[in-house]
Recover the amino acids of this structure.
């Protein structure tokens, strides 16, 4: 079946502009995650959705960052008034989070190809 | 903050040799996962090892987990040029809501033909 998709694949914007990044998770996956990866570094967690609600937004770096999810499917990550330090690859992942997740040992996450954001 | 730390940061080997990458972490975990990333884009899940497991195999991959030392290793046997990529370990602590993954900085593996 189809994997996680993200759009656009590349986005170049000017400092101060707003951008929207889109993620289409695997159908039926209840959990959705956004991560950010700066050049040559590991992934930083941004936000997690279970269904349409976001119980964990602790990774969002500032109030310029927001995200929403609708229909327990598509999610958009919005960055307002972009800054040069926002330049990174933004990765989305989805997972099927079952009941009794912890004692079942957890699930893998399936990643999309990412959106490379460049802020000039 | 990054919990996992991979070692070495970069590894260059000849085709056919084995590659070993190590990962250390700081807090207790529910599971530890290894991912591969080509060209700085999407990650591919390789293997998941649960906290009550010590060793796991998948094809040419062998993962070990030592929870007493809070460390894991990934062994790729009989490496191929196509194995060239960045490899990340990620921990799931099972405590935080949604069990987000905490990634290390990665090991860049280069397999020379």
């Amino acid at each position: 079946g189809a994997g996680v998709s993200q759009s656009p694949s590349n986005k170049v914007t000017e400092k101060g502009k707003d951008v929207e990044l889109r993620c289409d998770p695997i159908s039926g996956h209840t959990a959705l995650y956004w991560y950010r990866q700066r050049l040559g570094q590991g992934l930083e967690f941004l936000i997690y959705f279970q269904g349409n609600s976001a119980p964990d937004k602790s990774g969002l770096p500032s109030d310029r960052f927001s995200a929403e999810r609708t229909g327990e499917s598509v999610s958009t990550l919005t960055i307002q008034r972009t800054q040069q330090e926002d330049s990174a690859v933004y990765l989305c992942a989805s997972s099927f989070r079952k009941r009794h997740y912890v004692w079942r040992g957890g699930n893998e996450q399936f990643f999309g190809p990412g959106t490379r954001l460049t802020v000039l | 903050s990054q919990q996992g730390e991979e070692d070495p940061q970069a590894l260059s080997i000849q085709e056919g040799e084995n590659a070993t990458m190590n990962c250390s972490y700081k807090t207790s975990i529910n599971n530890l996962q290894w991912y591969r990333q080509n060209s700085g884009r999407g990650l591919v899940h390789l293997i998941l090892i649960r906290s009550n497991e010590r060793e796991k195999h998948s094809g040419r991959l062998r993962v070990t987990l030592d929870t007493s030392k809070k460390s894991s290793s990934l062994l790729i046997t009989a490496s191929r040029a196509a194995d060239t990529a960045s490899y990340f370990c990620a921990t799931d602590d099972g405590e935080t809501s949604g069990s987000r993954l905490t990634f290390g900085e990665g090991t860049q593996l280069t397999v020379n033909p």
